């Protein structure tokens, strides 16, 4: 069948914007080199790295300019709202105006099986990894367009009807919609289909989702027309019965880097894999099929091209026919090696801690509104009130008694900054599309000589120091780029990116980047309380890189362990130095991961600062994902003090690094877990929502 003439314009803006943002941050997608690919073929990324940042706009067919819609960006141009109830969700999802709707926590529908109709120009995104839709879903009707459904768990309408004959209760149903992006969701245990793309729904991209524990995973078709164009990439389809996916009468279906897993020990048997039905043209690239019966095959009138996939323990049909189409004629894309797909997707599919923040940060009104509402603006080109963050902080009135906002425009600010204790209520807000666009960085270390003599010491090495209460930082990167390798002979490699020594501190959608001692969460003085919330953020380092005596909650965040300066693996995440009558560090709904050797990093060790045996260090990791970097025995001694004498524990963690409970892995009981919550940690302080 010849390819019809394209009905759209190739759109590159989302890809270019993402790459530009990453370049500012000093990072890039691993191994992406599209320009070097021969004959327009896609490039392969180096294994096995997740993207350095998640994009805010769709790729694939959903990115194209067609049917009067230029790409898929959802509610980018409208207001951002946060919802916690079905009533609020329904109000904004059905509104005529564009909205970015953040779902904070689990929303259980009043009527099982309801599908809230979603109007055009909407983004619905889960906050952190907590956003859930329970016993219901979403419906996109004819003509609905420019919709993003992202970073949600949609679950549990299943009522015992395995075939789904008695109910049409889908997680996501689309009838005649166009320009839709379904990304980073976990869809499970519904009463009909997890995703139904019906009645000529087109310009659809489905990416980085986890579909599990269900009969009908992903059905496409319900039409005699052959017009729909769909991209399906980086999805983990696990323990599902059928429609994995089944694509009927689809003009162009491009599937790449998907992982289909049928667990022989599970209760569900996968009937078949990727099925090209009717007159579908399907291109299947670099997939991974594990224990799947009939992994891919076409109907007699369909065309199916396969290249680069791995068949692991499969049986039955793996058949191709025809030439289908060339996806690279329509959009740019990058392939991951098929053999890396299982590890990549186990880590990267479903809700991620930083997706919501990246999505919200890209809203079109964010930059202008922040700058317009700010008391001072810092810009490196001189267009603001100051070119230096430190100068702006110094301009804040001493004794300030109300919130004071400094907007920091994109740029790299190479300086040290101190917020003294007489400048409370300060807000530092980056106006860029992601935290990396506004970076405050310096390279002092503990052993660096001070201009006035002596060395800086650990706390003095901080790029940014906060000593004022009620401080907030949003959408910024704090970095210390001290070069350990170049200063191998120097004593004192501790190099702090951000030090807080204050109470009621909120760090939201920030990056703290360093090696040893990246993030120092301290108190104003010994015996005082310093409460800190770190949320929707990334903290990066290798040795004791979250440390200090503060009462801190690290929530919905990425804890990224890195290699040492010599390339070796090995280190510690947390080094709490908690007073006996205070709470220490609580890591919740977060991820510990990194491109390091398996089992080479500990969750932490107790820091009895100055040999003070009266301290009682505390660190708890709960409801978090620990990848294989974490050691089987995740705690260790420090400075002659045994870890067993400290308050170190886990609760309900998952992932390859979670291990089995035992003497080396003390677990909280359910009763104890009720006392180890952010609310218990913060007492009479309720941090303001972002």
From TrEMBL:
Signal sequence extent: 1-30
Keyword Secreted recorded: yes
UniProt keyword annotation of Hydrolase present: yes
Family from the record: Belongs to the pectinesterase family. Belongs to the polysaccharide lyase 1 family.
InterPro entries: Pec_lyase, Pectin_lyas_fold, Pectin_lyase_fold/virulence, Pectinesterase_cat, TAT_signal
Gene3D superfamilies found in the cross-reference section: Single-stranded right-handed beta-helix, Pectin lyase-like
Region (Disordered): 652-690
Localization terms from the record: Secreted
Name of the protein in question: Pectate lyase
Keywords (A to Z) from UniProt: Aspartyl esterase, Carbohydrate metabolism, Hydrolase, Lyase, Polysaccharide degradation, Secreted, Signal
Biological process annotations from GO: cell wall modification; polysaccharide catabolic process
């Amino acid at each position: 069948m010849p390819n019809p003439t394209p009905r759209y314009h190739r759109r590159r803006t989302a890809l270019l914007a993402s790459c530009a943002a990453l370049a500012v941050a000093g990072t890039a997608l691993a191994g992406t080199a599209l320009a070097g690919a021969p004959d327009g073929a896609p490039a392969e990324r180096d294994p096995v790295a997740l993207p350095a940042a998640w994009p805010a706009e769709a790729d694939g067919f959903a990115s194209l300019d067609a049917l009067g819609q230029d790409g898929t960006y959802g509610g980018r141009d409208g207001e951002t709202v946060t919802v916690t109830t079905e009533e609020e969700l329904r109000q904004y999802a059905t509104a005529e105006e564009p909205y970015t709707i953040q779902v904070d926590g689990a929303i259980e529908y009043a009527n099982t099986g309801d599908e809230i109709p979603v109007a055009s120009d909407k983004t619905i995104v889960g906050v952190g990894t907590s956003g859930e839709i329970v016993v219901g879903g979403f419906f996109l009707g004819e003509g609905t367009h420019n919709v993003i459904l992202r970073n949600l768990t949609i679950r549990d309408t299943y009522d015992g009807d395995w075939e789904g004959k008695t109910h049409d209760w889908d997680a996501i149903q689309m009838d005649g919609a166009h320009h839709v992006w379904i990304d980073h969701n976990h869809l499970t245990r519904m009463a009909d289909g997890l995703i139904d793309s019906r009645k000529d729904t087109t310009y659809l991209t489905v990416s980085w989702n986890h579909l599990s524990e269900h009969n009908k995973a992903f059905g496409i078709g319900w039409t005699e027309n052959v017009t729909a164009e769909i991209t399906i990439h980086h999805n983990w389809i696990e323990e599902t019965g059928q429609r994995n996916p089944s694509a009927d009468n689809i003009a162009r279906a491009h599937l790449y880097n998907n992982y289909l897993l049928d667990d022989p020990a599970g209760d569900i048997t996968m009937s078949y894999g990727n099925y090209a039905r009717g007159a579908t043209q399907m291109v299947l690239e670099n997939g991974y099929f594990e224990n799947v019966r009939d992994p891919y095959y076409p109907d007699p009138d369909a065309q199916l091209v396969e290249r680069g996939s791995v068949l692991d323990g499969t049986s039955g049909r793996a058949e191709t026919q025809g030439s289908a189409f060339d996806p690279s004629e329509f959009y740019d894309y990058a392939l991951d090696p098929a053999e890396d797909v299982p590890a990549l997707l186990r880590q990267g599919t479903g809700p991620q801690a930083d997706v919501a923040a990246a999505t919200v940060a890209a809203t079109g009104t964010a930059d202008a509104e922040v700058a317009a509402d700010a008391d001072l603006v810092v810009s490196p080109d001189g267009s603001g009130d100051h070119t230096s963050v430190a100068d702006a902080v110094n301009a804040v009135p001493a004794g300030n008694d109300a919130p004071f906002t400094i907007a920091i425009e994109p740029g790299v600010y190479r300086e040290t900054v101190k917020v003294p204790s007489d400048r409370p209520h300060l807000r530092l807000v980056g106006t860029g599309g992601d935290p990396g666009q506004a970076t405050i960085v310096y390279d002092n270390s503990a052993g660096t000589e001070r201009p006035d003599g002596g060395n800086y010491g650990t706390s003095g090495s901080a790029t940014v120091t906060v000593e004022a209460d009620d401080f907030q930082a949003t959408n910024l990167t704090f970095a210390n780029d001290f070069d350990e390798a170049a200063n191998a002979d120097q004593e004192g490699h501790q190099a702090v990116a951000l030090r807080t020594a204050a109470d009621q501190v909120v760090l939201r959608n920030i990056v703290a980047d360093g090696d040893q001692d990246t993030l120092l969460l301290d108190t104003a003085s010994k015996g005082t309380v310093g409460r800190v919330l770190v949320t929707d953020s990334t903290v990066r380092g290798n040795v004791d890189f979250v440390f200090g005596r503060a009462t801190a909650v690290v929530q919905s965040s990425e804890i990224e362990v890195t290699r040492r300066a010599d390339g070796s693996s090995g280190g510690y995440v947390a080094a709490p130095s908690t007073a006996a009558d205070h709470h220490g560090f609580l890591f919740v709904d977060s991820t510990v991961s990194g491109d390091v050797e398996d089992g080479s990093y500990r969750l932490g060790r107790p820091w009895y600062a100055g040999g003070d045996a009266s301290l009682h260090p505390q660190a708890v990791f709960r409801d978090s994902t620990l990848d294989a970097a974490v050691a089987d025995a995740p705690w260790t001694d420090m400075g002659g003090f045994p870890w067993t004498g400290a308050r170190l524990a886990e609760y309900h963690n998952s992932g390859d690094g979670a291990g089995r409970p035992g003497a080396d892995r003390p677990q909280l009981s359910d009763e104890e877990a009720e006392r180890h919550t952010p609310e218990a940690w913060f007492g009479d302080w309720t941090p303001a929502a972002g």
